[in-house]
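Hi R.,

Here's the input for the nicotinamide-adenine-dinucleotide complex you asked about:
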Amino acid sequence: MADYRKLFDLSGRKALVLGAGSGIGRACAEALGALGAEVHCADLDGAKAEAAAKAIVAAGGAASASAADAASGEQVSALVARARKSLGAIDIGVTTPGINIRKRVFDYTEAEFDKVVALNLKGTFHFFREVGRVMVEQRRGSLIASSSVRATTIEPGLAVYGATKAAISLLVKGFAAEVGGHGVRVNAIAPSIIETPLTAPIKARPEIYETYAKHTVSGRWGKPEEVAAAVAFLASDAASYVNGSTLLIDAGWTAIDGPPTGLTKTA
Ligand SMILES: NC(=O)c1ccc[n+]([C@@H]2O[C@H](COP(=O)([O-])OP(=O)(O)OC[C@H]3O[C@@H](n4cnc5c(N)ncnc54)[C@H](O)[C@@H]3O)[C@@H](O)[C@H]2O)c1
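And here is the predicted structure with nicotinamide-adenine-dinucleotide in place:
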């Protein structure tokens, strides 16, 4: 029988998490640390990255931190060099920073379009390229990017954001095809609606909060740790045959095409 406990164990693994300062990224850093990986926490906000690293250490793990702008190829390159030096290797690379400017296409300025694409899509490209080079050299590694249910289903005002998330899912497939033969896995997560600072403005509007909750088959929003647990799976040897995929963590958001009607009750 396979040693299933060992497949999920990340002891001795080295992880770089970009976006570790908040929300899903912070939870991912904590999850990887709790499962045994040494984590380098990076974020545009260096103080928040430090706080994430401190929390991991306080929980008995090993972590360090630094600041980097995910939208800057130069800064991502320097970050990866720094993380590799500090960790000695990079077995796991997770990137979460993303921006959404919620506007109809007619109202978008070119500068706003460029800003969303520069962080969401080009940022993922920088991260993949820089961490991917290290992993190909090592002949091992797991890369995880942040897509969204908005890669497949949409609402007015999310066209540009959704287009970047769909592009990330295809970038994942293409890059997996290029590096898979070198022992590297490349995947993405696609959450629906998770309680984080990013979604706090939506949460603050009760009617929208409820509508979004009802859009899932669970009838509720998700927690960052529910996404982080899936990221930990993708990072681990338990996902050794998962490559080029976008894993839905959406509580059925994309499985149904309307709010539950109550007809699902069996009694
Ligand atoms: N929260 C959700 O419901 C949800 C749903 C689907 C997809 N997502 C995606 O998940 C990812 C993370 O979302 P979140 O809710 O955890 O967001 P968040 O705002 O809580 O955290 C994002 C983190 O990224 C950092 N960051 C922002 N710009 C950066 C930059 N240029 N360089 C480096 N770091 C930067 C922020 O400082 C912050 O710590 C995003 O890509 C988002 O599109 C979130």
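One thing worth noting: The first strand starts at residue 14 and ends at 18.

Cheers,
M.
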